[in-house]
Task: inverse folding
């Protein structure tokens, strides 16, 4: 089989930088220039069904605060995603609030009273946090250039606009045969949206959601359900005043800091849902983007890092052409 | 020689969890419980000479905002640290402001006009961003339990209360002899404080400082000087409104968002400098703390991560006993 180390290093061996034709040799590419040079066919529209749009009350300067979340694609976290869809459809979050902001950890929102009844059928799923994805070592499509990344937590790769980690020890059977699937799971990078829960076996319903606002919290992977990621308006969650209560919850004295949630809607329930697209993670441009992130060679940098971890490669998202 | 992989995995093989005597077997340790159980001798007082204390104007609720920075120890970044000491000694930052807040990147402060004269002798050093540290593979002190961590950026370890990365390819000479020193460098973890600069060969003077407010920015390692880390009051930098100008600078229309800096002082110049101490990174408790961070087994977690990266191990800091 393809040795794991060589597999993990695939992206570093890509001749992507040398092939960079849209810039003169004196201006090495940056992540932004690689994204800007991506072909239109390399962008994938995000279905409006996969958008969750949260409007917070305007800030003290009267500015609107909209947070757009891309929901997790199948086969991951789907029972929780279904709950989230139900809760949005019945406008369950309207009138609830942001209740917890813990520095370098999470912003969490939902019903501060923890007493608001849930819609019928919205219960904590008994479902795994991992699922099967094609084994990157078994990919046969030469057009699929999705790079694999090795970091302190194992191996990772990208699919459907999201980063996933998987167990490198489960890529082959004991006889060395490469297995068609690996067990993979969504990761808690900056911007990941997950499901708050109590102590296991509780898994949470999805009514209490959090976003990772600081450094990645990879120890939460496989322990809590990740249902999406923030793709616009992250600053409306990350720049909120931190709560002084335990775990960053706002205390009763700080009740005025709880930002009211005006509405949370699924894309199809909006008159004008945002039109967004992400850079195909199997595209040539995405592979180059990863390579450039691992080895900055533009004028500002003098020593390339020589590597990059999974969470330091945010999948590029932009407004669709018609909306730009 | 000791194989590198085994070296990197040293902390995982520690019998620390099994030796955990202060908790019953039914309550596995948490990072907090390990810190709480550390012996008094395992804490090292931070010299007041190594403290830089920045008082921002009070927030809109009238609350004081103090940011405490631990300055980088020798042999790292010392010419810039010397500049920072000079600038604080002459009260250069008093009356300047926070001018840039870029989401998931940096908060930066200094003179918004970029015209304020610098004290004599404060110039951009011609100095390397790396320095020599003892090779962890050559340590002879059995009491030194500093764990080494492998991540996407190479190997890392801890010294003097700070995380450092080093090149694993430089631990031995071509004949396999373990070298006494490695070339190491400070890393841009959440909370790291660095020196803003223009395009190289400029290295910055230290008058413009930034703090990493989101995920680690390891691609900046060895490209900018790290002069310390925020050890108290991080939320006063991370929760500020993001600037809408290029790179997150506040625009002229947003001038009111520039938080005034009331004063920046070195510890010895204060009537009552904060009394702080950090957990000795060569201590048994620190090694256990790393092991627990890599493998959470308390009730909330069901699947331990099995690893942890350098920036996900913040060195514990607390108020000294007399100050608590």
Result:
């Amino acid at each position: 089989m393809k040795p794991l180390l060589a597999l993990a290093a695939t992206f570093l061996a890509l001749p992507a930088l040398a092939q960079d034709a849209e810039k003169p040799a004196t201006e090495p590419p940056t992540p932004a220039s690689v994204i800007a040079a991506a072909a239109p066919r390399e962008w994938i529209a995000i279905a409006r069904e996969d958008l969750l749009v949260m409007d917070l009350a305007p800030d003290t300067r009267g500015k609107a605060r909209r947070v757009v979340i891309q929901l997790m694609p199948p086969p991951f976290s789907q029972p929780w995603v279904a709950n989230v869809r139900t809760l949005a459809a019945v406008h369950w979050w309207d009138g609830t609030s942001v209740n917890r902001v813990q520095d370098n950890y999470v912003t969490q929102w939902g019903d501060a009273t923890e007493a608001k009844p849930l819609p019928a059928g919205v219960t904590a799923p008994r479902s795994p946090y991992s699922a099967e994805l094609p084994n990157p070592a078994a990919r046969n499509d030469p057009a699929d250039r999705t790079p694999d990344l090795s970091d302190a937590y194992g191996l990772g790769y990208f699919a459907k606009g999201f980063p996933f980690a998987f167990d490198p020890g489960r890529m082959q059977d004991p006889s060395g045969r490469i297995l068609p699937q690996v067990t993979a799971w969504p990761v808690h990078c900056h911007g990941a949206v997950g499901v708050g829960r109590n102590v296991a076996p509780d898994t949470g319903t999805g009514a209490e959601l959090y976003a990772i606002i600081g450094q990645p919290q990879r120890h939460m992977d496989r322990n809590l359900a990740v249902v999406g990621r923030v793709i616009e308006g992250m600053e409306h969650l990350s720049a909120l005043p931190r709560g002084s209560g335990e775990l960053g919850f706002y205390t009763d004295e700080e009740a005025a800091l709880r930002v009211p949630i005006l509405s949370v809607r699924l894309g199809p329930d909006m008159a004008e849902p945002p039109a967004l697209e992400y850079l195909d993670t199997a595209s040539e441009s995405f592979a180059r983007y990863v390579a450039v992130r691992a080895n900055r060679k533009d004028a500002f940098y003098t020593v390339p890092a020589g590597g990059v971890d999974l969470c330091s490669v945010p999948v590029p998202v932009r407004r669709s052409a018609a909306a730009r």
Notes: Chain B touches chain A through 50 residues (CB under 8 Å). Residues 27 and 299 of chain B are 8 Å apart (CA to CA).
